[in-house]
Amino acid sequence: MKKPLLIILLNLGLAALVWAGDVANFVNLGFSEDSRYFMFGQYGISEEASLPYAELFTVDVLRNEYAPQGVRRASYGVAVQPGQNGHGALLTALHDFSLTGDDPVGRFRINHLKTGRLVYLLVNGGSPQDQIEFRDFGSGNSYSVGLTQSRTGTGPQSAASFYLTVGITGRNGPAAPRIVGLPNLSRPGVESYRIKEAIFSPDESALIFVIEMNLYSPRGSNIRYMVETVPLR
User: How far apart, in Å, are the Cα atoms of 179 and each of 147, 193, 206?
Assistant: First the structure.
């Protein structure tokens, strides 16, 4: 009796994977040696075709924008097995790009061991916060970060924008708050945003905020990631 039960459970697990929406996983892939560039990836199983995919993004930290040719995507036409989450697609994409002359890791000199210093993390299942605060004990600075978002429409017509208000209080008192992001950019399909992580660059010259985007899906929540960077010098 155990074997049929196992088959049923595996089938239920695969059904949940297919029907629960496309929830990508975020991966910090590291900074360049001079901390100018930050690379991150996301991977998962596509909702439409149930195929493993991976996306690589390289961000110019000083400009707070994607580096030239800094976005790479790959999808693989292999059958999804129970328990798989698409992680193999990320590893395969990194390997495949490394064999070409279009390798973002080599071009931007990304060091996978230099992932910066994590100072805030929203754990899975935790309640999202529109206001977070943390202190950098190295510099003595305190940080207050507010997330403001606006949404129009519902369901497939939904669209949402956001921005961050970053306040920094140092030894000489608070500095003027900084607005980070594009308040007037309403992204189609997005229902909401939340702050997932905050990371200091390896040389402590910038803060990187990982933003989780909740996109509309008739099958459940589709999750994608982006980042906003705040130079500190």
Answer: 10, 16, 15
